[in-house]
Amino acid sequence: xxxKIRKHKNPKRGTELTYATIPLEEARNLDEGELRKxxxxxxxxxxxxxxxxxxxxxxxxxxxSDERIVLYDKEGRKGRKGGLKETGDxxxxxxxxxxxxxxxxxxxxxxxxxxxxxxxxxxxxNGFKGRAGDGNAIIKRGKxxxxxxxxxxxxxxxxxxxxxxxxxxxxxxxxxWGDRREYVLEKADPKRILSINIELDPSASxxxxxxxxxxxxxQITHKHGVPVRYFLFHSSPESQGKLFEDPERIFxxxxxxxxxxxGLIAIISLxxxxxxxxxxxxxxxxxxxxxxxxxxGAVLLGIGLIAGFFWLKKRK
Length: 316
Description:
The chain is of the alpha+beta class. The chain folds into three domains: 4-104, no CATH class; 107-251, no CATH class; 257-315. Helices cover 34% and strands 26% of the residues. The protein is built from seven helices and 14 strands. Strands 6, 7, 8, 9, 10, 11, 12, 13 and 14 form a nine-stranded mixed sheet that branches. The protein has a five-stranded antiparallel sheet with strand order 1-2-5-4-3. Strand 12 (193-199), helix 5 and strand 13 (228-232) form a beta-alpha-beta unit. Helix 6 runs antiparallel to helix 7 (290-315). The longest helix has 26 residues, at 257-282. It is flat, with a radius of gyration of 25 Å.
């Protein structure tokens, strides 16, 4: 078995995500028979040949970003434009170290027509039930894509006024629509909701934003166990009409490598400075003059304090 099937459980919500991993080297030389044996029980309607080719090409490429694979029906029926007919299932391929991970691909559904937080609460309680027709969702293109921008700010009065909402979720029923990776989402259980992404009213003050986030924390995270991300969308003449414009994420903020390194430098420098200062006091340093010890301790202390200052500043 070249694929390892994993399960990620969320005991608070009673949900479970099934995904698969395979070493990159084995993925580059994947045999269709191996894929059929390991994965076809999970995707019985997929075309094993197309899926195998897609995995091999992505594993052999220099791409670092995620890739999407459309799963086709095994009969290979022709669509209107001569392509294979889509079943509506998508897989996300992601390189993680020396492994390739296969994940189900979520959808993004944005609350439209000023539906507001009342619509979000109803979906969290009862699940999503849509009607067949034009695309009401899109296939998520990348891990940082959080909005479709089809929606409008809430017209509700009170603390939720002016906010916009986008749900990240897995479909139970639906199908692709059109040529822009749009999707007709028909049904999704509440447990299939992965997160709620909220664009806060850009005209709200800092204090009002804090009050909004506290409200959503109680009404969504505490009540339903669903994560919430908060964003600010800075509109401009250049950004109008762009479907995938990225807003500024304000909480929780992405942890950057720079922030981690700064914190590590602060801890190490302060730790060694305390050692040298302690050695200065007790006289336990061998082979170093008192002046050298003083200088080393002072320099490390200074580096630790400066790094600590910038680390704290980046956390705000």
